[in-house]
CAAX protease self-immunity (Salegentibacter agarivorans), 207 residues
Amino acid sequence: MIGTYFLFFFLLGFLNTFLPELDLEKYQQTELFNLMDESPLAFILMAVIIAPLLEESMFRTLIKPSFTEIHIFICAVLAFIGLGFIPQEGHSLLKYGLVILSAIIIFLFLQSLKPSRFLRIFRIILYRNYRLIWLLTAALFGLVHIWNYVEGWQFDLILFLLIFPRIIAGYFFGKIKVENGNLIWPITMHAMNNGIVVFFLLPKLLQ
């Protein structure tokens, strides 16, 4: 995974040097940079804690899932949808705190229910097709990160190059879930991955 990051930055530098007409500057992660400038603490919490928890709960829970992990998936999807209804100008920590609290309440309710026949069959299907789910969620994990660079939906070669490391990361996050059978491992690996990026951004964050 780290090797693909080096390849990514090398290729991006090559394109920026020899093909300046591609205009890579229009793909800047403006929203993340704004958050980093406005509230460094919120940016760190978002990158190292909130994003790994929310994203792994959405993309890795259906790989060989337990009933608890299926419930976590449902709550993560509802939390992601809920974020879309909260005004952008709301304080980041308050916004995510409210959504996570709501998700925890829904999760506790789902855990109190006896798994239905449909849920049992759904879990068996997911188990039998875990390799397909693994690869599909890795690709989706990369695709959703397109919105880090552009608004709305568009796709081109540059965007593919930008999200390719995320697809590879999604593959390895899925791999560690398959091999260890517990969601805590991909969450930890994701947090470490983002933490490395935050570490290199510390000089800017501490200005």
